[in-house]
Amino acid sequence: MMKMKKLKQLVLCMSLLGVVGCAPAQDAAQTEVQDGIRVKPLSRVRVLAPEAAVNEAAAQQYTAMMSEAQQKGVLLPATHPEVKRLRAIAQRIIPHAPRWNQVATQWQWQVNVVQSDQVNAFCMPGGRIGFFTGILTSLKLTDDEVAAVMGHEIAHALREHGRERMAKSNLTSLGARVGGALLSGILGVDPNITGTVANTAGQMLVLKFSRDEEREADLVGLDISSRAGYDPRAGVALWRKMAALNKRTPIELLSTHPGGETRIQDIESHLNVLLPLYARTKGTTAAKLPPYRTNVALN
Q: What DSSP assignment string belongs to 181-204?
Protein backbone atom coordinates (compact mmCIF):
# COMPACT_ATOMS: atom_id res chain seq x y z
CA MET A 1 0.00 0.00 0.00
CA MET A 2 2.82 2.38 0.90
CA LYS A 3 4.57 1.64 -2.40
CA MET A 4 1.33 2.27 -4.32
CA LYS A 5 0.78 5.55 -2.47
CA LYS A 6 4.34 6.71 -3.24
CA LEU A 7 3.88 5.73 -6.88
CA LYS A 8 0.72 7.83 -7.10
CA GLN A 9 2.50 10.76 -5.52
CA LEU A 10 5.37 10.39 -8.00
CA VAL A 11 2.97 10.34 -10.95
CA LEU A 12 1.20 13.41 -9.57
CA CYS A 13 4.50 15.27 -9.19
CA MET A 14 5.56 14.36 -12.73
CA SER A 15 2.21 15.56 -14.04
CA LEU A 16 2.58 18.85 -12.23
CA LEU A 17 6.12 19.24 -13.53
CA GLY A 18 4.84 18.52 -17.00
CA VAL A 19 2.23 21.24 -16.73
CA VAL A 20 4.72 23.71 -15.34
CA GLY A 21 7.30 22.72 -17.93
CA CYS A 22 4.86 23.21 -20.79
CA ALA A 23 3.75 26.66 -19.71
CA PRO A 24 6.83 28.55 -20.97
CA ALA A 25 6.58 26.74 -24.32
CA GLN A 26 2.96 27.79 -24.68
CA ASP A 27 3.84 31.37 -23.82
CA ALA A 28 6.64 31.30 -26.40
CA ALA A 29 4.28 30.03 -29.06
CA GLN A 30 1.80 32.77 -28.27
CA THR A 31 4.43 35.49 -28.48
CA GLU A 32 6.23 34.14 -31.56
CA VAL A 33 6.49 36.65 -34.40
CA GLN A 34 5.69 34.94 -37.68
CA ASP A 35 8.23 35.62 -40.43
CA GLY A 36 5.93 35.90 -43.41
CA ILE A 37 3.63 33.23 -44.82
CA ARG A 38 4.39 29.84 -43.32
CA VAL A 39 6.15 27.38 -45.58
CA LYS A 40 4.26 24.11 -45.95
CA PRO A 41 5.66 20.85 -47.36
CA LEU A 42 5.04 20.32 -51.05
CA SER A 43 2.32 17.84 -51.91
CA ARG A 44 3.57 14.25 -51.98
CA VAL A 45 1.10 13.44 -54.72
CA ARG A 46 3.11 15.45 -57.25
CA VAL A 47 5.82 12.78 -57.44
CA LEU A 48 3.41 10.63 -59.46
CA ALA A 49 4.03 13.03 -62.36
CA PRO A 50 7.75 12.73 -63.29
CA GLU A 51 9.50 16.07 -62.78
CA ALA A 52 11.85 15.58 -65.74
CA ALA A 53 8.95 14.97 -68.14
CA VAL A 54 7.04 18.01 -66.86
CA ASN A 55 10.06 20.30 -67.16
CA GLU A 56 11.00 19.02 -70.61
CA ALA A 57 7.48 19.54 -71.91
CA ALA A 58 7.37 23.03 -70.38
CA ALA A 59 10.70 23.96 -71.98
CA GLN A 60 9.55 22.75 -75.39
CA GLN A 61 6.23 24.56 -75.22
CA TYR A 62 7.76 27.80 -73.97
CA THR A 63 10.38 27.74 -76.74
CA ALA A 64 7.73 26.99 -79.36
CA MET A 65 5.47 29.76 -78.11
CA MET A 66 8.20 32.41 -78.01
CA SER A 67 9.61 31.33 -81.39
CA GLU A 68 6.21 31.66 -83.04
CA ALA A 69 5.60 35.00 -81.32
CA GLN A 70 8.92 36.21 -82.71
CA GLN A 71 8.05 35.03 -86.21
CA LYS A 72 4.77 36.94 -86.02
CA GLY A 73 6.58 40.04 -84.79
CA VAL A 74 4.80 40.14 -81.42
CA LEU A 75 7.69 39.15 -79.17
CA LEU A 76 9.05 42.36 -77.66
CA PRO A 77 12.84 42.74 -77.98
CA ALA A 78 15.16 42.82 -74.99
CA THR A 79 15.63 46.55 -75.55
CA HIS A 80 11.93 47.34 -75.09
CA PRO A 81 11.22 49.37 -71.90
CA GLU A 82 8.59 46.91 -70.66
CA VAL A 83 10.92 43.94 -71.10
CA LYS A 84 13.64 45.78 -69.22
CA ARG A 85 11.18 46.69 -66.46
CA LEU A 86 9.87 43.17 -65.99
CA ARG A 87 13.31 41.60 -66.08
CA ALA A 88 14.54 44.08 -63.47
CA ILE A 89 11.61 43.17 -61.21
CA ALA A 90 12.28 39.46 -61.75
CA GLN A 91 15.94 39.96 -60.82
CA ARG A 92 14.84 41.21 -57.41
CA ILE A 93 12.20 38.52 -56.88
CA ILE A 94 14.06 35.39 -58.05
CA PRO A 95 16.61 35.24 -55.18
CA HIS A 96 13.74 34.74 -52.74
CA ALA A 97 12.10 31.89 -54.67
CA PRO A 98 14.20 28.99 -53.25
CA ARG A 99 12.69 29.57 -49.79
CA TRP A 100 9.59 27.92 -51.20
CA ASN A 101 11.27 25.30 -53.38
CA GLN A 102 15.02 24.64 -53.39
CA VAL A 103 14.81 23.26 -56.92
CA ALA A 104 14.39 26.87 -58.08
CA THR A 105 18.13 27.39 -57.59
CA GLN A 106 18.64 25.18 -60.65
CA TRP A 107 16.05 26.82 -62.88
CA GLN A 108 17.09 28.65 -66.04
CA TRP A 109 14.87 31.68 -65.51
CA GLN A 110 13.49 33.53 -68.52
CA VAL A 111 11.24 36.58 -68.79
CA ASN A 112 9.57 37.54 -72.06
CA VAL A 113 6.76 39.85 -73.09
CA VAL A 114 4.31 39.18 -75.95
CA GLN A 115 2.36 41.94 -77.67
CA SER A 116 -1.27 40.99 -77.13
CA ASP A 117 -4.46 42.51 -75.75
CA GLN A 118 -4.79 39.50 -73.48
CA VAL A 119 -4.87 40.36 -69.77
CA ASN A 120 -2.69 37.50 -68.63
CA ALA A 121 0.69 36.29 -67.41
CA PHE A 122 2.20 32.92 -66.50
CA CYS A 123 5.22 31.11 -65.13
CA MET A 124 5.90 27.63 -66.44
CA PRO A 125 7.84 24.97 -64.54
CA GLY A 126 11.53 25.80 -64.59
CA GLY A 127 11.01 29.55 -64.19
CA ARG A 128 9.83 30.39 -67.71
CA ILE A 129 7.86 33.61 -67.31
CA GLY A 130 5.62 35.24 -69.89
CA PHE A 131 3.60 38.46 -69.76
CA PHE A 132 1.12 39.79 -72.30
CA THR A 133 1.15 43.54 -72.82
CA GLY A 134 -2.61 43.62 -72.22
CA ILE A 135 -2.19 43.06 -68.49
CA LEU A 136 0.31 45.91 -68.28
CA THR A 137 -1.64 48.46 -70.30
CA SER A 138 -5.24 47.58 -69.40
CA LEU A 139 -4.52 47.65 -65.67
CA LYS A 140 -1.81 50.33 -65.77
CA LEU A 141 0.27 48.28 -63.37
CA THR A 142 2.77 49.90 -61.05
CA ASP A 143 6.04 48.05 -60.36
CA ASP A 144 4.60 46.80 -57.06
CA GLU A 145 1.54 45.44 -58.88
CA VAL A 146 3.67 43.81 -61.58
CA ALA A 147 5.61 42.16 -58.74
CA ALA A 148 2.33 40.91 -57.23
CA VAL A 149 1.34 39.33 -60.57
CA MET A 150 4.78 37.89 -61.15
CA GLY A 151 5.01 36.56 -57.61
CA HIS A 152 1.61 34.89 -57.96
CA GLU A 153 2.56 33.10 -61.17
CA ILE A 154 6.00 32.12 -59.87
CA ALA A 155 4.33 30.73 -56.74
CA HIS A 156 2.27 28.32 -58.86
CA ALA A 157 5.50 26.99 -60.36
CA LEU A 158 7.33 26.87 -57.02
CA ARG A 159 4.50 25.02 -55.30
CA GLU A 160 4.28 22.68 -58.32
CA HIS A 161 0.52 23.08 -58.55
CA GLY A 162 0.41 21.99 -62.17
CA ARG A 163 2.45 18.88 -61.51
CA GLU A 164 0.28 18.03 -58.53
CA ARG A 165 -2.91 18.35 -60.52
CA MET A 166 -1.49 16.21 -63.30
CA ALA A 167 -0.71 13.52 -60.75
CA LYS A 168 -4.17 13.78 -59.22
CA SER A 169 -5.73 13.49 -62.64
CA ASN A 170 -3.80 10.25 -63.22
CA LEU A 171 -2.33 11.50 -66.46
CA THR A 172 -0.45 9.02 -68.57
CA SER A 173 1.78 9.50 -71.58
CA LEU A 174 2.97 12.84 -70.23
CA GLY A 175 5.00 13.87 -73.29
CA ALA A 176 2.72 15.79 -75.64
CA ARG A 177 -0.28 15.77 -73.29
CA VAL A 178 1.55 17.81 -70.65
CA GLY A 179 2.52 20.44 -73.21
CA GLY A 180 -1.04 21.16 -74.27
CA ALA A 181 -2.32 21.16 -70.71
CA LEU A 182 0.34 23.64 -69.63
CA LEU A 183 -0.74 26.19 -72.19
CA SER A 184 -4.49 25.82 -72.38
CA GLY A 185 -5.18 24.86 -68.79
CA ILE A 186 -2.51 25.55 -66.23
CA LEU A 187 -1.40 28.84 -67.72
CA GLY A 188 -4.79 30.03 -68.90
CA VAL A 189 -3.18 31.08 -72.19
CA ASP A 190 -5.51 31.59 -75.14
CA PRO A 191 -4.56 28.89 -77.69
CA ASN A 192 -5.28 31.40 -80.50
CA ILE A 193 -2.08 33.25 -79.62
CA THR A 194 -0.16 30.65 -81.59
CA GLY A 195 -0.99 28.30 -84.42
CA THR A 196 1.03 25.16 -83.86
CA VAL A 197 0.60 25.26 -80.12
CA ALA A 198 -3.16 25.78 -80.51
CA ASN A 199 -3.52 22.61 -82.56
CA THR A 200 -1.75 20.66 -79.85
CA ALA A 201 -3.42 22.33 -76.89
CA GLY A 202 -6.91 21.89 -78.31
CA GLN A 203 -6.62 18.13 -78.01
CA MET A 204 -5.18 18.06 -74.52
CA LEU A 205 -6.61 17.80 -71.05
CA VAL A 206 -7.55 21.20 -69.59
CA LEU A 207 -6.47 21.74 -66.02
CA LYS A 208 -7.65 24.44 -63.68
CA PHE A 209 -6.16 25.49 -60.38
CA SER A 210 -8.37 25.04 -57.34
CA ARG A 211 -9.44 27.86 -55.08
CA ASP A 212 -6.96 26.69 -52.44
CA GLU A 213 -4.11 26.70 -54.96
CA GLU A 214 -5.00 30.22 -56.07
CA ARG A 215 -5.15 31.36 -52.47
CA GLU A 216 -1.74 29.85 -51.81
CA ALA A 217 -0.30 31.46 -54.94
CA ASP A 218 -1.65 34.86 -53.86
CA LEU A 219 -0.07 34.65 -50.41
CA VAL A 220 3.19 32.95 -51.37
CA GLY A 221 3.60 35.35 -54.28
CA LEU A 222 3.19 38.38 -52.02
CA ASP A 223 5.59 36.86 -49.50
CA ILE A 224 8.23 36.62 -52.23
CA SER A 225 7.60 40.09 -53.65
CA SER A 226 7.57 41.63 -50.15
CA ARG A 227 10.99 40.18 -49.40
CA ALA A 228 12.16 41.69 -52.70
CA GLY A 229 11.07 45.14 -51.55
CA TYR A 230 7.66 45.44 -53.23
CA ASP A 231 4.63 46.60 -51.26
CA PRO A 232 2.24 43.67 -50.60
CA ARG A 233 -0.70 46.09 -50.45
CA ALA A 234 -0.31 46.21 -54.21
CA GLY A 235 -2.04 42.82 -54.22
CA VAL A 236 -5.23 44.45 -52.99
CA ALA A 237 -5.01 47.22 -55.59
CA LEU A 238 -4.29 44.65 -58.30
CA TRP A 239 -7.38 42.56 -57.65
CA ARG A 240 -9.58 45.63 -57.36
CA LYS A 241 -8.34 46.70 -60.78
CA MET A 242 -9.00 43.19 -62.07
CA ALA A 243 -12.52 43.22 -60.70
CA ALA A 244 -13.28 46.63 -62.20
CA LEU A 245 -11.97 45.57 -65.61
CA ASN A 246 -13.78 42.26 -65.51
CA LYS A 247 -17.11 44.03 -64.96
CA ARG A 248 -16.63 45.80 -68.29
CA THR A 249 -15.02 43.01 -70.30
CA PRO A 250 -14.65 39.49 -68.87
CA ILE A 251 -10.95 38.64 -68.95
CA GLU A 252 -9.30 35.30 -69.54
CA LEU A 253 -7.20 35.37 -66.39
CA LEU A 254 -10.28 35.41 -64.17
CA SER A 255 -11.99 32.55 -66.01
CA THR A 256 -10.09 30.03 -63.90
CA HIS A 257 -9.26 32.28 -60.95
CA PRO A 258 -11.53 32.99 -57.99
CA GLY A 259 -12.13 36.71 -57.61
CA GLY A 260 -14.18 39.13 -55.58
CA GLU A 261 -13.97 40.60 -52.13
CA THR A 262 -13.18 37.23 -50.54
CA ARG A 263 -9.84 37.15 -52.29
CA ILE A 264 -9.04 40.73 -51.33
CA GLN A 265 -10.08 40.10 -47.73
CA ASP A 266 -7.81 37.08 -47.59
CA ILE A 267 -4.82 39.18 -48.65
CA GLU A 268 -5.75 41.94 -46.22
CA SER A 269 -5.99 39.43 -43.37
CA HIS A 270 -2.36 38.44 -43.98
CA LEU A 271 -0.89 41.93 -44.26
CA ASN A 272 0.09 41.70 -40.61
CA VAL A 273 2.77 39.16 -41.58
CA LEU A 274 3.52 40.51 -45.07
CA LEU A 275 4.04 44.20 -44.29
CA PRO A 276 6.88 43.56 -41.81
CA LEU A 277 8.79 41.76 -44.59
CA TYR A 278 8.40 44.75 -46.88
CA ALA A 279 9.14 47.27 -44.12
CA ARG A 280 12.35 45.43 -43.29
CA THR A 281 13.66 46.05 -46.82
CA LYS A 282 13.00 49.76 -46.32
CA GLY A 283 14.73 49.87 -42.95
CA THR A 284 11.57 50.77 -41.07
CA THR A 285 8.57 49.19 -39.38
CA ALA A 286 5.13 48.36 -40.73
CA ALA A 287 3.58 51.03 -38.52
CA LYS A 288 5.71 53.73 -40.12
CA LEU A 289 5.01 52.81 -43.73
CA PRO A 290 3.16 55.46 -45.77
CA PRO A 291 -0.19 54.47 -47.37
CA TYR A 292 0.04 52.53 -50.61
CA ARG A 293 -0.81 54.60 -53.66
CA THR A 294 -1.66 53.11 -57.02
CA ASN A 295 -1.86 55.12 -60.25
CA VAL A 296 -5.62 55.05 -60.88
CA ALA A 297 -8.66 55.80 -58.78
CA LEU A 298 -10.17 52.71 -57.18
CA ASN A 299 -13.68 52.51 -55.78
A: HIIIIIS---GGG-SHHHHHHTTS
Query: What is residue 191's predicted lDDT score, i.e. its pLDDT?
Result: 46
Average pLDDT, the chain: 77
Q: What is the pLDDT of residue 49?
A: 66
pLDDT band of residue 184 (cuts 50, 70, 90) is: low
Pairing of strands 110-114, 128-132: parallel
DSSP 236-248: HHHHHHHHHHHHH
- In the set 68, 145, 153, 164, the catalytic residue is 153
Distance CA 234, CA 145 (A): 5
Q: Is 153 a catalytic residue?
A: yes
- Predicted TM-score of the model (pTM): 0.75
Half-sphere exposure of residue 240: CA atoms within 13 angstroms, side-chain side: 16
Domain map (residue ranges) of the chain: 44-281
DSSP state of 79: T
Count Cβ atoms below 10 Å from residue 76 Cβ, excluding itself: 20
Cα-atom radius of gyration of the chain, to the nearest Å?
Answer: 23
Using alpha carbons only, give the angle 209, 211, 214 rounded to the nearest 5 degrees: 65
Closest CA to 151 of 217, 241, 64: 217
